[in-house]
Amino acid sequence: MRFLKFGIIFLLFLAALYAVSMNFVDESKNFTIEKEINYPVEKVFPQFNNLQNFARWNMFFSEDQNMSYQFFSPYEGKGSSMSYRDLKNSSTFGEIYIRYENPLRTLRYQLFEGKHSSPYLIDIKFKGENEKTKITWIIHTPKQPFLKRSLNLVTEDYIAENIDKSMKNLFTILGNKVDKEVQRKNLKFDSLMVENVQSQLLFGINVTTKNTKDALFKSIVMNHNKVLNFVTMDLAKRSDEYGEPVMITDADNFKDKEVSYFYGIPLSKKVGISDNNFSFRTLNASRNYVIYYQGSYAGRIKSIQELLLKAKKDSLRSGDLQQTFLEQPDKENNAVIKLSLPVFK
Questions:
Q1: For the chain, which residues score pLDDT lower than 50?
Q2: Domain 193-344 belongs to what topology?
Q3: pTM for this prediction
Q4: What does the DSSP assignment read for 157-208?
């Protein structure tokens, strides 16, 4: 009995302490988060003022695969809106509205969560500088009841982490969409260049095939179609949600009777897969010697040898050769490939 009384008194003490501490916590919170992305504002802004685009890369919405959406006209700019609902959790739903738009400069969102009548107010400012865009998020959280103010102690960290992950998703989507356009315009073939590349996550398949002209290229075409079909059909990825296909091989295995390679397509994050024929592979960030090549697929060997010779002259070790197909591999005599050889001391 004594322990029961002591427990009740202790719980009352904790409740009182919590209630007193809430006097020192604001009922709502304002904070600012600044980010920069290496794409011009003309490419970035449409990813924010079109809510169908916004929902695809923003982790608040895209992380939950059970989320269902409805979009209401107008579908972009001031007056557009979207509702969301978790199909497996009835308590997770809400609406977001664009209340103000100054094209390429400012947007204001209102986000209502669940049955709460007070929204999040989110102002986003855009400033384009030298093909980059500075993005400033100004967030005002809704007022919390007295006993729930402790939520404001973790809200900023949660939102900051969410925005950080979202910006990485956006960078990937814009990279897949914009880089394809830029690469086609600025390709310089048969010139050896040096590039610093970021890490990539590839989804693909391991293959071993005969190293003859017809057998190798037919194998590449077949496995390209296998991986692409899985990504677009089974994983339901759109064209700007994945990158150019990459084939990874030993740099000098063109001499061998058989070739082993990994053929993969870049994705932004790992997902669960049920087919054991496919797997994920990470390409680490690296410094690469690069040659853009166009011609017959068999003719690429001269460019590969040039990369290997350059690494040898510079007394550098080399990693696996990366062959990025800038055009879909379907014609052996008209391949467009970026040949990349990671080098290091």
A1: 10, 13-22, 24-25, 146-147, 149-154
A2: Multidrug-efflux Transporter 1 Regulator Bmrr; Chain A (3.20.80)
A3: 0.60
A4: HHHHHHHHHHHHHHHHHHHHHHHHHHHHHH--BT--EEEEE--EEEEEEEEE
